[in-house]
Amino acid sequence: MRKLGWTVVRATAALLTGLFAGLSDKPAIAHELVPPAAVTDMNTALLAMPVKERETFLADVAGSTMFVVAQQSSRMLMSQLNLPVRGEIETTIDTLTALYLINSTKTALKESRTLAIRSALAITSKPRSQWPKFFRYQNINRKRVERILCLLVGSNPDVFSSLREGTGMSDEQVSSCVREYEKTEQVWSKILANHLRKEGDDTRRMAVSYNKVPRGDEILVEMLKQSQILENAARELDDFYRFPAPVIMRAASCGEETAYFDPRTRDFLICYDLILRFATDHLEQMNR
Q: Where would one find the signal peptide in this protein (predicted)?
């Protein structure tokens, strides 16, 4: 990426410092853009990034995060609503993931759906050893992502035309995906019917919590907070389903690049470590 002039860098630093005042006890220092190997923390990289590149970067990170939220939402729904496993458990999870993405109607979530699939396709196109632990541990491979992609395109080929064209799907494949979605929707609409929130039911079960952010990543996490990706995801689930007990969607440091749902505590955890891994990968891609 090109270097910024000192005036522009200082202006960017001042803007972000004012927006995120109090997030860190480290002094805000303006930096020139540096290659990934020399970036000491994500704050530095974001301060040095041109505005348009930063917006693209954060949208990509939000998309990657949304894919994880969709996958873990599926596991949470299976546990909390006692949903049946149809076929293999991975097939059921992927089906629910696709339905979650398809039915995401809030603007911030709608805009992230395509990026979520593109991110997962990019990750699973690499050697398995280079995948984040979450993908390896959950065995989210290319075949599974393509299954989700097929259902999305099948639900509305026009809405998801960029995914269809970007992956080179033929007309025959699109038609096949339309048929697959129609069968899937027919089955799962009946299964989920008894778990939908009834009109007039204002009970709220989903909450969002952010644990202490690792030093050096405060700006990244605060920008994701500003995007409301987790809040919108939780609200959408709460609007759609009637949960028997409270669920907390929590972002926290875990020491590993993963995410999980604990059915005993009903803790829906997204690790900062995984979000930072997505951010680091996207940053490296931008600098190539």
A: 1-30
Q: What phi-psi label fits residue 99: left (phi over 0), alpha (psi between -120 and 50 degrees) or beta?
A: alpha
Report the alpha-carbon distance of residue 72 to residue 267 in Å, rounded: 11
| C-alpha pair distances (Å), 126 with each of 12, 132, 136, 157, 231 | 34, 11, 12, 27, 31
Domain boundaries, the chain: 6-50, 52-195, 206-286
Helix (H) or strand (E) holding 264: none
- Give me the amino acid identity at 266: R
Amino acid at 287: N
| pTM of the entire predicted model | 0.83
CA proximity to 69, closest of 236, 218, 186, 221: 236
Residue pair 16/28 in contact by the 8 Å Cβ criterion = yes
Residue 166 burial (10 A CB sphere; 0-12, 13-18, 19+): middle
Residue-wise pLDDT tens digits, 123-172? 999 999 999 999 999 999 999 999 999 999 999 999 999 999 999 999 99
197-209 residues labelled b (16+ CB within 10 A) or e (exposed) = beeeeeeebbebe
